[in-house]
Amino acid sequence: MRAIVLCVVMCAASARAVPELAVSVEEADVLFGPALSGKAGEALKARIEKRRAVCAGDDEAVRRCRIEGGLKELFGKDKAAASVAVDLFRKTGTVVGLLPEQVMDGQYRGMLRLVPRLPTGAHRRHLNEAAAALTGLDEFFVDLEARAAKATLGDPKRVSFRTRPLGLRFFESVKRRTPSAFAEGWTVSHNVSGSLFWSPRATADTYVHEIFHLNDEARAWWSARALKDVYGRIVARCGIDKACLTPYAPDGIVVKGGTYYAFMPDNGVIEYAADVGKRYVVEHRALFAGKAPKVPFRCATPENAEAWRLVVDEFFGGIDLLPPC
């Protein structure tokens, strides 16, 4: 089973305080699992149990202590990486671990061999950027709701977009750079050789896309139903012709073969929806930084406006602070 379900209740974005512990010690150990096999794994397991033996307090304090102890031992001598992982857990409840080795059918990418890889040493920047992406997304939604309340003279609007807690599994794609990430069951898997992680901002944007998938999945793939019509009209008009699709593309990522990722036939409407969600965050972040887009995505075509409204109402509390078209 590839997915690890860490919480069964949708968590509103407005609840941004330190979360109740939604990840059990056993679930955390599943995330640590790929590092616990073989002789080295047995030794690591013994060190984790020794560290956990000193945990004391009430039930929740013990569980937190035991998970933190596991994280510290998992990262071993890379104290800086361990500190980032523990801090992320304390702030968001997200637990860092590893993806089990597997062969993945990457569809148009071909068959991919994925192996567990800790984000330590030269790969530590991936952990740093992932943690910054997750905490930054929390901060963004707090700011968004505050600005929305001010704009509506105190009428509260709440975002329904869960960002925490997650399982965060690191891996490497052998001799490949794809997939950069994938998400399922409130777990994001992050490739330390992923082609999309070329900057902290690119990492942050990729995490919005993946976490959108998790929220969409929790709604029984809402986008496949709600956006099917508008997406179908765009594809019927343009097929995979890049020039035709350009006004409709919510993101500029182009895949092998020359079309936009959102319109690659093997990807379908759920990837388009996730890119619309990402574009929402990107454009509002630009607005908050005093760099509002001259032509917001929703203003480019009627189809964009339709998809935007549906996504904003479903996931972002109907909050749209961008200037009118």
Q: How would you describe this structure to a colleague?
A:
The chain contains 12 helices and 6 strands. A hairpin with a 2-residue loop joins strand 5 and strand 6. The protein is α/β, with parallel strands linked by helices and 325 residues long. The chain folds into 2 domains: 194 residues, no CATH class; 94 residues, no CATH class. Strands 1, 2, 3, 4, 5 and 6 form a 6-stranded mixed sheet that branches. The longest helix has 28 residues.
Q: Which keywords apply here?
A:
12 helices, alpha/beta, 6-stranded mixed beta sheet, 2 domains, 325 residues, disordered N terminus, 6 strands, globular
Flag low-confidence runs.
Answer: 1-18
Number of domains: 2
Q: What is the CA-CA span between the terminal residues?
A: 46 Å
Q: Helix share of residues? A: 40-55%
